[in-house]
């Protein structure tokens, strides 16, 4: 492997973020046709916002926050109304096209403040499937320095590109590090390992906070709610508005909606042996944004391939993959494997993520029978 190659690369869409709403659900929370949405309630607010904004240490001096509270509420209302009229199918589809700078700050602040109310579902998440990629089974028996060096080496083999704003994955990995690896107060090794692991995670649109310099316990306080589809709209809109107004600079600094704010090619896919696409809707713009092409996966390994799951009945997934396979049909291991299992089950059973490399024979090389459309189209070439 070269510096521009990894063994495993993972693409995460909104469907892979444990405990957080999808992009279209976030849209409904802000501008849905529901009396409990932000738009449905905002006209009735007589909200006392803080007199001054919270100071924050930021390197971005170009951000001009909205200091007038009533004007901020008015811009929130305008944003929600315009979003409702836009016929956008997801929040990302609309926000990336915002030209007005003040409205950009409002959009980022709302996204951050709403997501800040949700809580990472650590117990039922699929994130545990990633632990063997970063931590060997015998890591507990090593010295602190040996643990750190092993984590550094393993981290070179994995790269994650995520379209999610939340830090639930970072939260999970940090909690494991703190409570299961460096649990004897090895502060230096803990911090270095955290930074090493976090550098493998690339947020296309930024995140609600700086993962390298935030207090995860403050991000998820006792008042956060756990995502429940039956009680989806039961968020505290007043709390959202106060948080959005008070932390404009933080959210505007860390969330990157506009093209020129993003880190150039930092989120572009690089060459890899194994590509896992999890909870991703295969939006054409997002596909282009990260450069998802078959040339990127299956390198340096006869056992390499692409594995896709948790996409529902979205045929865009299969059509995209099919349209890019004609040059590789003579090499069976390049054919994407599609599973309709949950991410956790797919990684453990259909894709055998934990056994890749050590037990490659466990990985199925046939098209998943849960995808008849893909199977039929493949045999028409």
Entry summary:
The protein is built from 16 helices and six strands. The protein is of the alpha/beta class.
What would you say this structure looks like, in words?
It is a single chain. With 381 residues, the chain is α/β, with parallel strands linked by helices. The protein has 16 helices and 6 strands. The model is unreliable at 355-381 (pLDDT under 50).
Q: What sequence of helices (H) and strands (E) makes up the elements?
A: EHHHHHHHEHHEHHHEHEHEHH
Task: State the total count of DSSP E strands.
Answer: 6
Give the helix proportion (percent range): 25-40%
Average pLDDT reading: 77
Radius of gyration: 22 Å
Sheet of most strands: 6 strands, parallel
Strand content: 5-15%
Structural class: alpha/beta
In the predicted model, the low-confidence regions spanning at least 5 consecutive residues are 355-381
Output the strand order for the largest sheet: 3-2-1-4-5-6
Count of individual helical segments: 16
Chain-wise SSE layout:
Blueprint: E1 5-12, H1 23-31, H2 38-42, H3 69-85, H4 91-95, H5 101-115, H6 131-134, H7 144-155, E2 158-162, H8 168-181, H9 187-198, E3 201-203, H10 216-219, H11 237-246, H12 248-254, E4 271-278, H13 284-290, E5 305-309, H14 315-323, E6 337-339, H15 343-350, H16 372-378
Parallel strand pairs: 1-2, 1-4, 2-3, 4-5, 5-6
Helix pairs in contact: 3-5, 5-11, 5-12, 7-9, 8-9, 14-16
